[in-house]
Amino acid sequence: MQNVDEFLLYLKNEKGFSEHTIKNYGIDLDEFYDYAQNKKIDIELIRKYLKHLYDNNYKNRTISRKVSSLKSYFKYLESEGIIDDNPMSLISNPKIEKTLPNYLNYNDLEKLLSYPDTNKKNGLRDALILEMLYSSGCRVSELSNIKIKDINFKDRKILILGKGNKERYVYYGSKCENLLNKYLKNETHEYLFTNKHGNKLNERMIRKIVDENARRAGLEVHVTPHTLRHTYATHLLNDGADLKSVGDLLG
To answer: Could you tell me the pTM of the whole model?
Structure first.
């Protein structure tokens, strides 16, 4: 392995890379040299190595990182006069797959929202959490911090403290209103959603509630609070809302 340790030190001392990034570079170079063995390292070998990665079902994002590691490494060797020809000079990074935010279709959404048993205390709470995440489009952190005093029952809107301490109103529908009124008959704490000790539900617990209800409802897709937020935005756009208005509602 040609000067790998020196290269990693260069990344740390000259480039100021983090320990995590340097560790990944080291792993990528170890894997490359494990494949190369004692073969001549040239562009043909590099191409065979990339084909090896594709054949073993590495994702484009991972392959792109490995290509970047090799590009930096061989560029360093060239700049130090250790090699004359850079075998990575004609190699391009693969295109990264664009992952669209997932959202629920109407059937899956209905299965999820109708799953909790609203005749049970926790079921009513879970139903309200799911409905409020969807009908208001608020973030899980914003939902966790809602206080009962923040709710304008007359206009069906909630004052939210969002990112950057910016305040905005989010709105909820009639179904959410019915659940909210039923829920508040037995809720007297400062925060809207609380645990058995009366403390506010944190983000982790809300995520767990969403995940468990989705699995029990038989949904085959992974559902998070962010999924419901994207579903809210997608359905608004599908119903003709303009992009700016949706952006304002999402904060």
So the answer is: 0.58
